[in-house]
């Protein structure tokens, strides 16, 4: 389940009867976000799911780690951006 988290998470909210699965996913996001961020398919996580994860007030991860993963995700979405964030221009940060 952890390897296909984004699919499981999205599916769990398609039907209210999957409440226990929703709860499991929410707990996993909060307690073990690194497993989601380090998953093989992390870069394919939809933006809405990524926002849900990082907006969680109980996320057990440092803000620096979160930002590093957000940058990794963003670069996967826009591979034309320079790989070194210090080379980003103001225009690179505006989508």
Written description of the protein model:
The chain has five helices and no strands. The mean pLDDT is 82. It has 95 residues and is mainly α. It comes from Rhizophagus irregularis (strain DAOM 181602 / DAOM 197198 / MUCL 43194) (Arbuscular mycorrhizal fungus).
User: Which ranges are low-confidence, i.e. pLDDT below 50, for 5 or more consecutive residues?
Assistant: none
**Proportion of β residues?**
under 5%
> Helix/strand-derived class?
mainly alpha
Provide the domain count. 1
- In N-to-C order, the SSE pattern is HHHHH
Q: What is the gist of this entry?
A:
This protein is mainly α and 95 residues long. Helices cover 52% and strands 0% of the residues.
Which secondary structure elements does this structure contain, and how are they paired or packed?
Elements: H1 5-12, H2 19-31, H3 33-37, H4 47-54, H5 63-77
Which features characterize this protein?
single chain; 95 residues; mainly alpha; 5 helices; 0% strand; BACK domain-containing protein; BACK
